[in-house]
TrEMBL record:
Pfam families per record: ACAS_N, AMP-binding, AMP-binding_C
Domain Acetyl-coenzyme A synthetase N-terminal: 65-125
Organism whose genome encodes this protein: Lentinula detonsa
Domain AMP-dependent synthetase/ligase: 127-553
Membrane-spanning residues: 384-404
Compositional bias annotation for Basic and acidic residues: 34-46
Keywords: ATP-binding, Ligase, Membrane, Nucleotide-binding, Transmembrane, Transmembrane helix
Keyword Transmembrane helix in record: yes
GO cellular component: cytosol
Record family assignment: Belongs to the ATP-dependent AMP-binding enzyme family.
Stretches the record annotates as Disordered: 1-46
Protein name: acetate--CoA ligase
Residue intervals of the AMP-binding enzyme C-terminal domain: 609-691
């Protein structure tokens, strides 16, 4: 890696479009940090001092050098039980290889990294640090209850992980089995993940804001024999009925229910759960089980390509995809991105405010920081509760919408929980989402002002494009103009960050994710021709040229779907599904999804998924769901619905019917997917072959109903005016 002089560029300058460019974090050297007496800061950033140093370092990590670089990093940073002799196999198939009659289709040439190496992810995340430094804090657990926190050392974590691993073994879990985890943001979730990794079980974590139906589908898809859950969750001062939902999910699995044992963490000590929702013989209390097993469990020898976890994510069809990540490659991507993107140094306290139910929580709360041996944070609470018209909206990072609709009554809850947490623990990195930043900005900077945030050096954003207003607020009011701001682009499928600024090296522009991470070769491809676009100031779709270690290997049980979704659209490339541009500095600007995926508060869902949920209502005939831009949540779900002719209703009951439909979606998918607006219409605009033309609906909702262009492809164009009127009436109501 290129070494750095401590010559960090000075104040903001502008590019030719007038966009300000910001120095890549001034709190990176002791020389420039005004708070050096209070919080130790690294002498210099891992990369720097400027983009030239990055370019020199990056060029050593791509092209013909790529495999050698990754091999070196894998040996330097991970502890292997058996060294590997092969670095990588497989690549992204060409058009020729993708032909249906190819006798050696892509599925016979899987992507592997370090395929003959052996290691254990849990050993890498816990044991090796516990042996060296048992008293180092592995996890800062900031509980939902204001003022309550706990420090879990690497020694304590090892003990808990081993005990849970032994409990799972006693429950019959073996290497290669799947275990579903439905847990709130308590630190024990890390023990659950790592216990699975320790014994070679593949965990499938389901976000605790998902409904019973969603949990049921995910359990059935991967066939877990064990479910790990909690009595209740706590968020924003309220309890969430986690175990009741889990019980409902298992009941709904019916005869196909694969779950034999349920391990229940007592988070709140709920009497109701203990007395009414506990099935003896099947359910076991976590605290009782762990006290009855040995405190050590040897880590299983895992092949680098053995599955580590499955995480379900939305695609452009109704059925969520079980994305499979494997051991060695994933762990390496997680570790290196924590180190370089967040410029982590010994003594740092890293905080990612995501939920462990999403990929951001997997990689940047658990596997990345712990494999690096740093201190990570479990933030169980909510950043703020806001009064907006008559609703109290409680917002959660990357899960915000999950509870948006729960809190329709007054809750007095702090508006500065984030900042209290930062100053109380002296956090050095703070990784959040544009939605959270937008909300906090709206609340006003007085809440930030009262807190000492001088420990922070790097501020991160992920999940959706961040608008310059939010970026600037983050920079000025949280970072005080001295922190590096990293707008990190990545996906569940990429496993770890792939496009990002690097503190100390890359000047930033609000709204741009800037440059590819080490080992990543991005291309912007013309969406129509599939040709790579050269030069600057171009726009197309974002693709990656060559596999990197933490890329997902497959979709659980459906490799064809993996190939069709990511590798077939642009042969020779991995297709991200996002539109992107490249400016005159070679900086990448992510423009958002180009498929039928809606991103609400960084939370992915497919239009088809929401449509299927609406169609389960007995009166619904047809639906069309679209994403529209939303000032607070980035995008919002809007649904057009037609009712069956036999379903009688009149306009007087329409509000009640809309409520019912919203509830339907909340129940089937989860509260976060609830449509912001539902329009009940008599028909939908369709082509002559019967395809719904969503483009027209999008334009109408965006207020561009007068710019619909040529409507000759619409089978019954008069419906367009009817819909326009309906939308106008609903919006003004
Ligand atoms: C990590 C995560 C992935 C989708 C992705 C894109 C959007 C993520 C972004 C961003 C603009 C960023 N996305 N980071 N868009 N700028 N910095 O969010 O994973 O839940 O799988 O979502 O999120 O559209 O394709 P995931």
């Amino acid at each position: 890696m290129a070494s750095a002089a401590s010559n960090i560029p000075g104040p903001a300058r502008h590019d030719s479009q007038g966009i300000p460019m910001h120095a890549p974090g001034r709190r990176l050297t002791t020389a420039t940090n005004p708070h050096k007496d209070i919080h130790p800061v690294p002498e210099k950033s891992h990369v720097g001092p400027d983009i030239e140093a990055y370019k020199a370092a990056h060029s050593d990590t791509v092209g013909p050098h790529s495999d050698a670089w990754w091999a070196q990093q894998a040996r330097d940073n991970l502890t292997w039980i058996k060294d590997f002799s092969i670095v990588r196999t497989g690549g992204f198939p060409s058009a020729e290889e993708l032909k249906e009659d190819n006798p050696n289709p892509p599925s016979t040439l899987p992507i592997t990294w370090f395929p003959d190496g052996a290691l254990n992810a849990c050993y890498n995340c816990v044991d090796r640090h516990a042996f060296k430094n048992p008293d180092l804090t592995a996890i800062i657990y900031e509980a939902d209850e204001p003022g309550e926190h706990q420090y879990i050392t690497y020694g304590m974590l090892l003990n808990e992980v081993c005990r849970v691993a032994n409990v799972l073994k006693d429950m019959g879990v073996k290497k290669g089995d799947t275990v579903t985890i439905y847990l709130p943001m308590t630190w024990q979730a890390a023990a659950a993940f790592l216990a699975c990794a320790r014994i070679g079980a593949i965990h499938s974590a389901v976000f605790a804001g998902f409904s019973a139906e969603s949990l049921r589908d995910r359990i059935l898809d991967c066939g877990s024999t064990v479910l790990i859950t909690a009595d209740e969750g706590r968020r924003g001062g309220r309890s969430v009925a986690t175990k009741v939902i889990a019980d409902q999910a298992l009941k709904e699995c019916g005869d196909a229910n694969p779950v034999k044992h349920v391990l229940v963490l007592s988070r709140t000590g709920s009497k109701t759960v203990a007395e009414q929702h506990f099935t003896p013989g099947r359910d076991v209390w976590w605290h009782e089980a762990v006290s009855n097993v040995p405190s050590y469990c040897p880590p299983e020898v895992m092949n680098s390509e053995d599955g580590l976890f499955i995480l379900y994510t939305s695609g452009s069809t109704g059925k969520p995809k079980g994305i499979l990540h494997t051991t060695g490659g994933y762990l390496l991507g997680a570790l290196l991105t924590v180190k370089y993107v967040f410029d982590v140094h010994p003594g740092d306290k890293f905080a990612c405010m995501a939920d462990i139910g999403w990929i951001t929580g997997h990689t940047y709360i658990i596997y990345g920081p712990l494999s690096l041996g740093t201190t990570t944070t479990f933030f169980e609470s909510t950043p703020a509760t806001v009064f907006v018209s008559v609703l109290y909206l409680t917002i959660f990072f990357l899960s915000s919408m999950a509870y948006f609709n729960h809190y329709t009554r007054s809750i007095s809850y702090p508006t500065k929980r984030y900042w209290e947490t930062v100053s109380k623990h002296g956090l050095t990195q703070f990784y959040s989402s544009p939605t959270a930043v937008r909300l906090l900005r709206k609340l006003g900077h007085q809440h930030v002002q009262d807190h000492d945030l001088s420990s922070l050096r790097v501020l991160g954003s992920v999940g959706e494009p961040i608008n310059p207003e939010a970026w600037n607020w983050f920079n000025e009011h949280v970072g005080k103009g001295e922190c590096a701001i990293v707008d990190t682009f990545w996906q569940t499928e990429t496993g770890s960050i792939i496009v990002t600024p690097l503190p100390g090296a890359i000047e930033t522009k609000p709204g741009s994710a800037t440059v590819p991470f080490f080992g990543i070769e991005t291309e912007i491809v013309d969406s129509m021709s599939g040709k790579t676009l050269e030069g600057d100031n171009i726009e197309g779709v974002l693709c990656i040229k060559k596999p990197w270690p933490s890329i997902a290997r497959t979709i659980w049980g459906d490799h064809k779907r993996f190939v069709d979704t990511y590798l077939r659209p642009y042969p020779g490339y991995y297709f991200t599904g996002d539109g992107a541009g490249r400016d005159e500095h070679g900086y990448i600007w992510i423009k958002g999804r180009v498929d039928d995926v809606i991103n609400v508060s960084g939370h992915r869902m497919s239009t088809a998924e929401v449509e299927s949920a609406l169609l389960l209502h007995n009166g619904v005939a047809e639906t069309a769901v679209i994403g529209t831009s939303d000032e607070m949540t980035g995008q919002a779900v809007n649904a057009f619905v037609t009712m069956k002719p036999e379903f009688s209703y009149d306009s007087a009951i329409e509000p009640a019917l809309i409520k019912e439909l919203v509830l339907q979606v909340r129940k089937i998918i989860g509260p976060f997917a609830a449509p912001k607006r539902i329009f009940i219409v008599t028909d939908l605009p369709k082509t002559r072959s019967g395809k719904i033309i969503r483009r027209i609906l999008r334009k109408i909702v965006a207020g561009e109903g007068d710019q619909l262009g040529d409507l000759s492809s619409v089978a019954e164009p008069e419906i367009v005016d009817v819909i326009k009127q309906k939308v106008a009436d609903s919006m003004s109501a």
